[in-house]
Amino acid sequence: MRTEKFLPPLARSVLDRAAERRMQDDLIEALREDPATRVIVIRGDETLFSTAGTLAARSPFAVDGEATWGFLGTANGLNYLVCVPAEGTTVDDIGGEWESLRVRGGDVSDFDAGVFVEALSLARWYVEAPFCAFCGSATTLKQAGWMRECTSCGRQHFPRTDPAIIVAVVDGDRILLGSNALWSSNRFSCFAGFVEAGESLEAAVHREVAEEAGVAVHGVRYFGSQAWPYPRSLMLGFFADVTAADAAHADGEEILEVRWFTKVDILASYAGESDVILPGSASIAYALLQSWAQS
Prior knowledge:
Largest sheet: 6 strands, mixed
Number of strands: 16
Number of helices: 6
């Protein structure tokens, strides 16, 4: 059911990560001295966008103070770094706006989306995993920001990615969506959850749908994937056919309501003609729903 039109929005990176260059010991220092280097500054889960709505890559000299740096890759002859400023560090924002991946990720070019999701994924690892998971000692960044080495036991650590499945459950011309307990009552999305230890993707699809929506599914088929750094997920999208539609019910804990929607319902919501709130354009859930509704 997937076409290039419905490729998940954060699955379109065109940046050459040039991983072989990460072994150059002085790569970050050299690129920080080059005014042609482009820098993606990350603050929380936001980066700068220009007044024209494009990613505002900055010069290394636009960052004044302490920061953590990493090498993202190259494009069109330019080198790209990610920068996470320390508290008190100033950044020349050239009048741009700070916006999050959730808000802007689905509305920018393939290049901007790919650079943003890579930069944010790496930046969150810098902030959230500064210590060795084995002995608790401090680590130092190496390999141009792609590896941490423990200062005590010497173990190496790399950015972590957790696989999670997300499923569009269909019954002919209807699709089943759920409303999470943490959301407002009129917000719905596809069913999702992390893959557990020792579990296949297919098994996770069956388990999550049964747990959250009370139904069995068959005909599981892969749709596509995208990075989702909230906190560090790789979202793997699937379609599946429901076995007994009438059995659908919310688990009452994580999911408070399940509801069947038609294609007309989905398109009406995205057209602003309904009070139902569906996933934003940066999410793979949006790609799943749009692909199904327009098929």
